[in-house]
Design a protein that fits this description.
Elements (H helix, E strand, L loop, with lengths): L1 H22 L5 H5 L5 H6 E8 L3 E9 H8 L3 H9 L1 H9 L3 E4 L11 E7 L2
Antiparallel strand pairs: 1-2, 2-4, 3-4
Helix pairs in contact: 1-5, 1-6, 4-5
Length: about 120
Amino acid sequence: LIEFLKKRTLAQLLDEGKAYAKRSSDTSFRTFSNIFKNPWMEATLFMEIIEDTDTVFEVKVTECLVGDTFLRAKAGEIGNAAICMGDYTFAEGFNPKIKMIRDKTLTLGQAYCNHRYVWQG
């Protein structure tokens, strides 16, 4: 089940990243990082911007409404596979020059999620 969810999530979020890019005015790194500064994100994530430059954008998420739902159900690994894994391919779909790096995830029991996006342009 976990492997199936990971594969589905990676493919689906790649497509969603590409669709978001088509709807955007451009596919620059700045346009991508601004996704995290919209009201929907602020309503579902408690996050702090750690770094915001022309080549690196990093946020630290200490609370996630979606992740909390899976954790309360003792299904963090399912939430990670069904939701969190897609963060990587959404960025790639938006612009293949954006690489996401993460080594901490709330759904896997860590204290926070780190989303570090690097522009490889």
